Amino acid sequence: MKRKSTIFIAAVAALTVSLTPSVGSAKNGPVYEIDQQQVSSRVAAIEKATGQPVLSGEIAGAAWIAQVPDNWNGDLLVYAHGFRGEGPELTVDPPPAYQFLTEAGYAWAASSYRRNGYDPGIGVIDTKNLTKHMQSMLRREGDLDKTYLAGVSMGGHVTAAAIEKYPNLWDGALPACGVVGDVELFDYFLDYNFGAAAIAGLAPDFTSPDPDWTNTTVPLIKDVLSNDPDGSFTPGTPPIASSWAGGFEQIFLGKDSPLTDEGEEFKDFVEIGSGGERVSFDLAWEYWHGVDGLDGNFFFDLGEGDGTIANRSGRVSQNSDMSYAEEYGADFAFLDDVIARATASNRVRKSQGNQPAPIINGTPSIPVLSIHTTGDLFVPIEMEQIYAQEVIDNGLGDLLVQRAIRDVGHCSFTGAEWVQSYTDLFNWVDNGVKPAGEDLINDISSPTLGCDYTTTGVGGSGFRSRLAPCPT
């Protein structure tokens, strides 16, 4: 490919929109503003790390940054970030392992989106806008070849939805730790909360949604599911805490689980609902119930609020159409008669547009390689199972490769795992060499799950050494 000329650098610089203060808002929501200091700081850090200039600008209230390396190979990767909380400050970051992309000659670009919150619909729009903007700039050089889309977490939702809505914009996609089961993630959160209440024996007449859920109903649940509902900690530097469900005391000190028989039954329920029996689940359970310290309310906190997302009206989660006997098996068939039921807003579940969250149909027209950690209970590997089944049902299984990574964190991949994923996707698109993957739809209890694709290196949750080793 032709190297970027000095004239081209100047032309790109001229096309770059300066970052002047800009504000935007969601209907009935907060006013958002680009965090100029964060963007400037990020640009400086990237330029220092790569020794090459970074472009920056703004499109429709969304900040963007990009890099076109001196040895540009003609390809572009656009990055879709994940959930950034509910605050008003818009921030932007480069794609994971961006140094590899720059050194290998790939141009890349990333958007802040114009809003925060769980708003993948806006993410799709702003990612599309940035992609078109970058393609227009790069085509002025005349050598733009392939364009890729990668995203993490909510950005995985953006990625899988965007390639269906705008199928001609990208040539390959890499959703990582992605919400590729779209709104069914919120059904999983609902099942956690309603399932806990039902297994604890609570009548299904509690208030939901309830903005005070963790103070009104959750204590009643913990009293039944745990022998230590208030949690405990071992003094030290730092102190090591255990919540009502377990935590870091179990991981680091080997303490017995505080769960009652009902609590163990609930733990089994969550394992099935998050993807099925697998080697990393016990550690994942302790990890995710230890991250909040003594209260262990990470998932119960997700049961609070008004049931909406992204400041749009309409409840997003539902279980009114769920058969627990079919989805969870005979051991949990009793829930069909006792669990509370909720129905989502019709516009949320059936909308084919971008608001409030685009529905993914499993109809990619380009190669898709996805990676997911085995013990992620926030965005569980169940998301991959839902997406894969939809893709296969649509007769498009040849376009999807999925890989498990042995870790308990959310998006906790090593740099080497990112580089391998990029490399294999690029080779698939460029040369037609479909990479190997794993069957994540069926039984994932094999002790070899993820062994072929898990590497060492910088990154990871820090808990990998506590997982059972891969068979030799």
Account of the protein in words:
The protein is 35% helix and 13% strand. The strands form three sheets. An eight-stranded mixed sheet has the order 3-4-7-5-8-9-13-14, sandwiched between helices. Strands 1-2-6 form a three-stranded mixed sheet, with no helix packed on it. The protein has a three-stranded antiparallel sheet with strand order 10-11-12. Helix 4 (120-139) crosses helix 5 (154-165) and helix 6 runs antiparallel to helix 10. The protein folds into two domains: 6-181 and 357-466, Alpha/Beta hydrolase fold, catalytic domain (Rossmann fold, 3-Layer(aba) Sandwich), CATH 3.40.50.1820; 184-350, no CATH class. The protein is an alpha/beta fold. It is built from 17 helices and 14 strands.
